[in-house]
Amino acid sequence: MCADFAIHDKKDGDPHAHIMLTFRDVTPDGFRLKNTTWNENSVFLEWRKNWAEVNNRMFEHKGLEERIDHRSYKEQGIDREPMIHLGYEASALERKGIKTEKGNHNREVQRRNERRAALKEEGQLKTEKAEQDTEELRQNAKEIQLEKELQKIREIQKTAQHMEKPIEPHNEPPYVSTLEKQLKAEKAAQHIEKMREQQNTAEKIAERMKALKEKYIELETEKITLIAQHNKDKLELPPLEYRAELMDEHAENITALQCRLEQLQESRRNLRLLDLKKKKEADAQIAKATQNLEQAQSFFRNRFHIDPAQAPAELNRLQNEIRTKQDELATKQILVEAIRKKQATLELAYHTQKLLNETHPDREQITQLLEQTRHPPESIRDQQQIAQLLQQTHHPPQTIRDQQQITQRLEQTRHPPESIRDQQLRDRIEHQLNTINDTNFQKAIDNLPPYQARILTTLREQAKEQQRLIESEMKRNRTHDRSR
User: Fold this and answer.
1) What is the dihedral sign for C-alpha 428, 432, 435, 437?
2) What residues pair up with 20 in beta bridges, in sequence order?
3) Residue 274 has what DSSP assignment?
4) What is the spatial distance between Cα 248 and Cα 246, in angstroms, rounded to a whole number?
5) Euclidean distance between the first and final Cα of the chain, in Å?
6) Domains, the chain, ranges and CATH?
7) Distance between CA 8 and CA 145 in Å, rounded?
8) pTM summary value
9) For 163-214, what is each residue's pLDDT tens digit?
């Protein structure tokens, strides 16, 4: 390849170079065929890489800290929108304080990048808060487990103390009888205390799991609302952008027609007094240009319902509204991601506790308490309303319709009506929380002691094996039925 270059530095702050390259191979015999491999993207990227390395070596040689990278922001893993090159003319106008289209674009990109950085920092703060909540849940789980271990140690110590008590000889029946009564009483008291502690523990576990589930449902409702608002705002954005783009295009067309009309009028004034033919042609052109301008202005008024002179202000308003909606969309997206991270934390805590319940001695009681939370007992106020309705039933209803109305009111008092959508949401979340796949199972046992993890892994493998046997038996029965 042959290159012809020139370096320009007028000491005006804009040093640059002009480089011309050949498209043909250069040989001792002159130029040959075009080398199309130079147009490939891989060659272009290799040149960019070499150029970056040369610049960085020179920066290091000069003792400068600046470095350049030939890769794009996406390849570098940087969440930033790139700006466009201004060029010589746009740079000169911007230095004079005149705003250009490229300059406005770069300023808009810079504003979005700053907004994106601020939202990212806000999302990181929310993520840190979610991690702190997760750590607190883990500490609570560890404290509960430690309390269980301490309780076992206390029971062992009590048993050892009773075993160390001296036993009276067999030849003294009264003392033996008294000792037996004392031991039976102490054993009964310990059994009652143990039952109370287990009851309290089971209630606490059920309340904690209920709180986790209610918090998850609350976050899911908030997430669904945000997603619905996000989709609604997203649908409102394209019409605004189309209106702004179309208005800008027609406003520029009107401006161009006005400039054309002014040029024709200026040319008409510069004609000589006796150039009658040219004046006649100029008048015809001016009339045609005036007609085109009036048609464009009339179309603009009918299409946008404003005067063309109000176009800049309306465009500014539309652009501000578009930017506001874009910022709202980005904010809602970040909030949704933060909610999903909180839900993942709550789901992990719920799954961990559910797995612990498998080895808990009161797992059946915990299951019953959780079932009761789905239909809570009636409050005192509900009971009073039911009593009033029952008093009305002391007098027989006049018609079957009255009896049906009273029965319906009783049912509504016992169980307040819930919308089908809310019930479906609650059922879906309960199914999601109660279903533990292999990935969630692995995450949950990672937070448990090794001996509990081994027990739960063994139980899960046994359940899988039993499920495989059931499926195999069902498949065999289906095959047998088909053969018959």
Assistant:
1) positive
2) 4
3) T
4) 5
5) 82
6) 3-76 (3.30.930.30), 101-159+175-358 (no CATH), 379-483 (no CATH)
7) 76
8) 0.46
9) 444 444 444 444 445 656 666 666 666 655 555 554 457 788 888 888 888 8
